[in-house]
Write the structure tokens for this entry.
Amino acid sequence: MESPTGADVQRPLLSMKNINMTFGGVRALRDVSFEVRPGEVHCLAGENGSGKSTLIKVITGVYRPQAGAAIEYDGQRYTHMSPVTAQASGIQVIWQDLALFPEMSVAENIAFHTVLGHRPRRVDHKAMRDTAERVLARLGVTLDVDLPLREYAVAQRQIVAIARALVGEAKVVFMDEPTASLTQSETDHLLEIVRNLSASGVAVVFVSHRLAEVLEISHRITVLRDGGLVGVYPAEGMTQSRISELMTGKIFDHAVRAQSHDGAAPVIAVEGLTRRGEFRNISFSVRRGETLGITGLLGAGRTELALTLFGMRRPDRGTIRLDGKPVRFSSNRDAIAAGIAYLSEDRLSLGLIQPQSIADNLVISSLRKILSHGFISERKKHGLAARWISDLGIKIGLQQDAISTLSGGNQQRIAIAKWLATDPKLLILDAPTVGVDVGARAGIFDIVARLAQSGLSIILISDEVPEVYFNADRVLHMAQGEIAGEYDPRATSLRDMEAAVYA
């Protein structure tokens, strides 16, 4: 595919060959080759655990590859990079967590590297502001650089992270899941910034599980699977299903799963639920064994509604009925006791406790089940954990391993298991596939379908319309805190639903 900068006829800016990495006997990378051309937008695709992050850490000097590696960058040859060499050479990485400082100003976040050094020096705040404003102007963005970063939403923070990378005259910028928490309009703006960077000669390596935007923005796609290189492909003519097949070695059947549940009794019924400034006049019901999808742009009030159903927030008016009886929750403990479970969209901060063990994370919401004479029974704990690990097909090493040792998809399965262990009537899944790959997504939705078939009622929240279209029985569209429409996937097209939601 011909790029606007002529990247396809230029020699690579970065070329890596014969990259091997082994951790504890596990081959994380196997003879991988990778290259990026000047001004190119290059997608690095693969499932969680395929080696993407390991490869990036080799490029940036965090890891030293095994003997035999050949790295050439900007005309110079290396056996390995160091973090100092990589940064000084213009290789920058924007990780998914952004690694910014919320209490510092925008200017300080963007330009703090300019005041680092071996000897103390006086901080020139004016120079930092000037640097920040200059780089933001290059991106076509206007922000108050004196405001603390915490005052800005995640979309603006993403831009601040990009601006910080450009201060060092970046030549290659790696972006790890940059749109995971952005609305469609924010995503469109970010992709336009990526195009502008490409046009100015900056190469961008884009890592994303959202395959539609991968195809929209990339010139070429490098696919990794199980630590090995599958191939390098032009984005032109590629499809989402083909990328999924290359990443996983499997063919996925995207079929509508919707079924009628009109004969089943409502498990939850909501009438006129309102919380000022967040949502208003929300009415719906979910029947036994039914999966209700809720979609809409970020900021539509979806998560706020879920938190209210889960007792984390109190409505100003309206009613909630469980099994026909009105309920009022003072806390999430009341909701859990009543049979409601909530999987947060923020798995890393709210869904799981990363340093704790797999078993402890799984049983934390069901402690009463594992007590013996007032103390936690290790036998009961490991028995409960083993049951759900087996039932959901979760791949682990040992139960006592930290949850952080698992892939994103397996972490998400543990988070689901944590709530299933409470024996809920209603399971609320808020963006359950954020940060997980296409194969793990398919596995999660297979679990959702199986749970619904067993009689569990499910509310599935996602800003990705295809997720609710293919996996819910009915879909509600929320916009600006209200229900803007209701859809039956069997009676409408995906294109029409997407047009309504993304309009």
